[in-house]
Amino acid sequence: MGVNWTSEQRKVIELRDRNILVSAAAGSGKTAVLVERIIQRITDEEKPVDIDRLLVMTFTRAAAGEMRVRLEQALSKRLEEDPENEYLQRQSTLLHNAQITTIDGFCSYLIRNYFHMIDLDPGYRTADEGELKLLRVDVVREVLEECYAQKSPDFEEFAECFAPGKSDEGLEELVLKLYDFAMSAPWPEEWLSQCVSIYEAEDWESVCDSVWMKEVWKHTDKILSDLRNLIQENMSLTQKSDGPYMYEPMVEADLALVERLCRITDYDEMGEALEGLSYARLSTKKDLAVSQLLKERVQENRKQMKERLGKLQEQYFYTTSEGILSDFRRCRGPMQVLITVTLRFLEKFSQKKREKNLVDFADMEHFALNILVKKEGERCTPTQAAWELSQRYEEILIDEYQDSNYVQEMLLTYVSGWAKQKKNIFMVGDVKQSIYRFRLAVPDLFMEKYHRYTLEDSQEQRIDLHKNFRSRAQVLDGINFLFRQIMGQELGKVEYDQEAALYPGAVFPEENSLESSDTELLLIPQETMELMEDKEATTQREVEALAIAQRIHQMVGKERVLDKDSGTYRPVRYGDIVVLLRTVSGWAEDFLRVFAGQGIPAYTASKTGYFSALEVVTVLNYLHICDNPLQEIPFTAVLHSPIVGCTAQELAILKTSAPKLPVYARCLHYVQEGEEVCLRRKLESFLKIFQEHRKKVPYTPIHQLIQEILEETGYGRYAGALPGGRQRQANLNMLVEKAMDFEQTSYRGLFNFIRYIEKIQKYNVDFGEVNLSGSSEDTVQILSIHKSKGLEFPIVFVAGMGKKFNQQDLNAVVVVHPDLGLGVDVVDPKLRVRCPTLPKQLIRAQLKDENLGEELRVFYVALTRAKEKLILTGTVSKLEKRIRDCAALLEREKERLPYSLLAGAQCGWDWILPALARHPAMEELYDRFEVFHGRALFEQEPAKFHIQVAEAETLVVGELEEKLQRQLLRERMEQENWEEPEDEETYRVLEERFSYLYPYEILEQIPVKVTVSELKRRQQAEEDSDFLYFEPDVIPLVPDFIEKKEEEYQGASRGTVYHRVMERLDYTRAGSEEQIQEQLEEMCLSGRMSRQERDCVKVEDIWKLLCSELGKRMALAAAQGRLYREQPFVISQPASQISREWPDRENILVQGMIDAWFLEEDHLVLVDYKTDRVYPGQERLLREKYRVQLENYAQALKRLTGKKVAEKVIYSFSMSKEIRV
User: Fold this and answer.
1) 565-607 tens-digit pLDDT
2) Of the chain's two ends, which shows fewer C-beta atoms within 10 Å, N or C?
3) Rounded to a whole number, what is the distance in angstroms from the first to the last CA of the chain?
């Protein structure tokens, strides 16, 4: 049965030989239409096109893969109808090589085929995101250190202005932010140069001609126009039959004042006019016939007008033209330094990537652009490669065009049909769903064509797809009603008019459907928190989650939705429901916890994505202890995880059993002497598997090791059985894949893999969880709105409507805009004061509007995910005041809400509640707070809303009822007679499985290998602190250029350097301090040590050792060839010699490094250097501290040489003294 395409869809499919922009509303079937267009192009009887002559680009690899599958299915279907068709067979074969790809994939294709044009090694590797993040940070720090080392006054002033604190993180972030913006432009160096040109204006005429100054006047005109509308509204209020007529002259004066301001075009004149504003005083005449409500509304509107004019002066007209030029002169130097540093970073970062033969995605786009375009000055000339590709492709088809940027736009232009003088670009998108501004997408590219292309037949034609084939009419009516009032050109980049509205195209049988498909609002007053049972421990998010959970209980199993497969109605399931959040970070955990407490199965992507997913964290902890079992926190985490299954109580028992031992040794100890049988069995079972895995670490590939861990511990199967099991198993499989990818790099071994993971976690690099949108588990999904894009759900909760919008980027020291450049402060580093420049004020206002526009579009995406039911929820502060403010809009006749109200929004309710102010659904709230209201303006509106305020009493009662039901169920289960089960066979099998004990548990306690230092810590462990576990102190990163000032205070590093010097010291050339100095310099020049390391070595320390009795004996032994330094060893010892709890039939490898030893006559002398800070009289402490270590060294030497160690000597550099042990 064929598809019944609408007339607009048929145009999209059939029109040829032109540029086409398809503005496709949510749920309009744009992907299906795009696939059908491709199918018809390759099966056209008159002008068929081979599929490899089409270039199809999508936003994600998943979308490209889905489109390829759809095309393959469509071709297979055609071949079933006509199996002998050779042309279709050919297309089916060509499909595998067809260019159906992402923009990055296409760029990669260009580079592979034209690498010779850009002097790139064809063996390049696409950089892993984590690797790239590390490299970026390393390079920017290197660049900044170079700048500091040059001691340039200009740079020092710049650093003092923009990073006045103790850290350079602000500078690093600023350079990286500027770099990212530059790389989104076609010519990064040119864009950076234009940024500084703003501040190079020498005269006022140049300022007036600038793009940003014209934007200042545009923004001013927008504000004044909005004020004119506000005053005209006041005028209409005064002219009503019961209006405050006595205010009319004053309102006329206000209107004249604003009209006069609108005519001003000179900056200084506008500043003077705003500074000298005076307003007519409102009449005090009283008339009982005048409505008090209307008087108050006029007064409130007038107050807003005065405040906004005052804000306009503070924002843009706070200085004079000369003051602006003066600010520019003061900012010019720091701005030039910033651009210079960023250009240096761009150059050095590119150089580092070339050295490693790496390419990132930004490189791909710019390499592709350089392949296609040759830029000479202001002129761009297509290359031979561009000509060939332009000749090759019959049509370029782009999906999600609203998310393109300037570089991608140029690429598409140069591979289109210009060489054949043919327009052949087909673009599909919806600017209302452009929600990737944080990735520097430019929706203006879409809007420019939206306004320029015509709806009539032309070479550049626009086609609008209005019909939504996803949602019920009731859902669409609600969306249209809201967005007609809140989305416009000022914020959302598009007028939400009849052309942009959604029209129902889906058919829903009316029988047995949901009780009501009206859009619901669930308001949770913040005052509700005061009445909750445990208000201190209950957050606003938890209260909101509780309200949603109770609404879910009301729907699941009771209301009905249309089944997608059968086409009939069935009861609502948990899997029909999604909760959408603006961000899942912090929110998802609270919602999951509350839902679990309410007995609702739910699953979400974790707050920071992949590396925070529980199953991934657990396996990474296991890998940590396979590499080093003495890591307390990872080892404890594994014990507490399902791999071992220790409870918190069992961990406490384990801790108290041997408080002085590390947790690993404690486990081994408990297996021998522990009292709790259940805990001992858990540890025995775990340690056996663990020891086997540790033995395999040196020779097993990481990915194979992970697979064996998942299989042999059973954790892989366990994770798959949890809610969201398919997602969890996919995450674990992805970890295996990442390990395989890691093994393709130059690094090897478990230690390096763990270090790599730690670094990318430190810099917040995230692979992102595996996307399994087809998950079939019957659980409520909790998703971010961005992740929900392209998906659909029968019932949608849009939560967090009371959460404040994120406007943090407006408070940055430097604000960046891709078109307007940089906005900075004028900074006086001496007085520690800063003042924003006019460009910064403009850019902040522009960014605020664009941020709000993005929030509007994100809100639109969220609402359009719903098929049958839409519910908006959120906490709301000062509900009564909000409702009274909404009543002020009752007399407004224009449908669109005023720009000032929309631009002042701080959360979703600031748009939704005013949009409903004139809807009948608000009458109940008006009555509740005794707000006078007349007849609703939108009384005949088809959109229906149901507004409910979640009272504290209702939430508490609902929660108690749920708890009571669970308690009754538990009591019933406990009262069952499990001793006499009805099913004897099932009971026998369960009893057998749960009572099974692994028979070979005794040998799992022994470590494979220990170091001498570990033995020392094991046998001389001090009392633990009050904390069960602790993290080591973090040593801050000290820049290279000042590290020499700090090195002498870093004891561990100093000790390492002293050992290195003593290892390489030539005793035949150490007869004086000068000769020692010369040797140290030689070590520096040969790269044996750095200059900073050299500076922390005191020559007198070395000289005192050489002058001592021990030093003279060592020099004599060296002359005789009997001195041995840095002697490594590995010996085997019975386990019982290390710990009496361990059996003597097992052996342990002991590994260490002896500082020095020498042969005197027929016996040995063992020497160990120490740089510990000790004082005279404390020799005994040093001797006792290292006694065990030296005894192990002596035993190793005896077994290595067969000779007895006669002396064991510690030489203390801090006391310049030898201590015999």
Assistant:
1) 888 888 999 999 999 999 887 788 889 888 988 888 888 865 4
2) N
3) 94
* 117 closest CA partner among 386, 500, 413, 513: 386
By residue count, the chain amounts to 1221
Which amino acid, one-letter code, is at 82?
D
Instruction: Give the model confidence (pLDDT) of 400-416 as tens digits.
Output: 898 888 888 999 999 99
Rounded Cα distance, 51 and 421, in Å: 21
Q: Structure tokens of 1055?
A: 């000790």
Within 1009-1087, strands assigned E span 1009-1011
Q: Are 345 and 147 in contact (CB under 8 A)?
A: no
What are the tens digits of pLDDT across the range 425-437?
999 999 898 888 8
pLDDT band at 291 (very low <50, low <70, confident <90, very high): confident
pLDDT in tens, 83-128: 888 888 888 888 888 899 999 899 999 998 998 888 888 888 888 7
Q: What is the rounded CA–CA span in Å between residue 41 and residue 740?
A: 41
> 568 CB contacts (<8 Å, ≥6 apart)?
562
pTM of the model: 0.71
Q: How many CB atoms lie under 10 A from the CB of residue 1057?
A: 21
Instruction: Give the angle 557-559-561 at the CA atoms, nearest 5°.
Output: 100
CA distance 448 to 1154: 74
Per-residue CA distances from 398 to 662, 692, 751 (Å) = 59, 53, 44
* Helix/strand/coil for 841: helix
Question: In this structure, what token pair is assigned to residue 274?
Answer: 């705003």
CA angle 811-813-816, nearest 5°? 85
CB 237 within 8 A of CB 361: no
Task: Report d(CA 14, CA 860) in Å as an integer.
Answer: 30
Q: How far apart are CA 273 and CA 347, in angstroms?
A: 49
Name the pLDDT band for 1042 (thresholds 50, 70, 90). Answer: very low
Cβ pair 799, 814 in contact under 8 A: no
Distances (CA, A) of 1195 to 701, 1122, 1165, 1199: 35, 19, 12, 6
Distance of CA 130 to the CA centre of its chain: 13
Question: Quick one: average pLDDT of 370-382?
Answer: 88
Listed residue (510, 411, 429) closest to 55, CA to CA: 411
Structure tokens at 1117: 């032994």
Determine the Cα–Cα distance for residues 913 and 919; give it in Å rounded to an integer: 10
Q: Which residues pair with 1122 in a beta bridge?
A: none
For tokens 């909101």, the residue is 544
Rounded distance between C-alpha atoms, residue 770 and residue 732, angstroms: 10
